[in-house]
Each structure stands twice: as structure tokens, then as C-alpha cells.
Please model this.
Amino acid sequence: MTGTGFPEVPEIEQACRTAYRALSALVPGSVTAEEESSLPEILSQFGFLFDRADLAITAQLGPSVSWQAPPPGDNFDLMMSGVDLDDDFHTFGDVRLGDDAFTGPARTWHDSPLNRAALAYKRVCGWDFPPGEAGVWLVMLAPTSASGGQDGPWFYSGRLVGFLVVYDRDEDGIYESIGHIWTAMAWQRRGIARRLLAEARSRFAITTVEEPLTSAGAALLKGC
Model:
């Protein structure tokens, strides 16, 4: 027995410490350094560290998500889709997000890819709250794999790399206000935000972009 009352399990402890260091590298400064932590302290921090590491990956690459769409053809390009979280009135063509986009593994909005992207956006911008389960979301999707046949839709897996949320603030049935625009860091400067903004303006009678704006958001609007 060790002085902490834990049985001696050097192989497991070494594996835990290695995992702890790897997760800490994704979110530096969030927890005590591995060499200064006991095994019980390390184990107690894994849930927190994993969540923060997942958010760091989401901020860089976007959350994992699945969708259905026509065959990819010759190019494996970005795809645009959307979802109406208010009344399911708006449709978005042949690219349809999978059920996992809205509920996540635990079948709740909290762990859904849409909410994980919203949380990453909140942390990067320093907002008090992330966008919630409301409005019409336009999303940009980056496929990494696809499968299907000649008949029926293809099934895609990839990353949600950008979103824009439009709201009907005065509840008159007309969506006129852009509330949020986000692009994952690794996908910035590729025109994704511009494409989402152009799609929103083509679909809705946009009259307002809500404040506050980040410096990047202000530059985007000025450029458009």
C-alpha cells in the first residue's frame, strides 16, 4: 500500500499520468501540473479535463457531426445545410443533418454538436451566454468520409466548421436579425463566414446584425 491508501498500480498510474499530460497540453493552465499531482487528484480531474479538451478541439476543428446528402461527385467539398429550431418551417434542400446534431450521445441539447460549437464560440468571443436551442441555424459542413449507393442519399461524417443564427425577434414570422456568426479556427480565412452570410441574406429579409460585435465580426460586415 502507498501512503495515500491506494494499492500500488504503477502501470495504471503511469498510463493515467500520460493521459493527464496529453489532455493538459490541450488546455494549458486549467489544472495542476501532472508532476505536482497525486494519483487521486489526477483521477478527480479527468472529467473536467476531457470536457475542456473537447471544447479546445471543437474551437479549432468544429464538432463531429453526421448528415445525409446526394453523392459527392468528383469533389469532396464543403456543404451547407440548416435547421429551424423554432417551428421546423424552413427547409434546406438535400443536405440534412443527422439526429446526432441536435441531441448528442446523452440525448440532450447540452452535449449536441450544435451546442458544443455554440460553447466554443462563447469562449472565444468572451460572451456571457452561448446561442441556445432557438432560431434558424445555417451550418457549414466539412466531410471526412461518405458512403452510399446509386439509389437513395449518401451518409456523411465530418465536422461542423461554421454556423450563423438568424432570429425573428419581433415574432412577426419574418426572420430579419443575425445574432451569431462563428467559424472554427482552423477553417478561418476560407470565406466560410461570407458564404453563410450570403446564404442568410438570400433566404431571409435581413435588416439587423445584433451587437456586440467582435473585431473579426465588424471586419466581416465592413468587407461585405
Q: What stands out?
A: The helical segments are 10-26, 39-61, 100-103, 113-125, 192-203, 215-223. The chain has two domains: 10-59, 63-223. The CA atoms of residues 24 and 36 lie 13 Å apart.
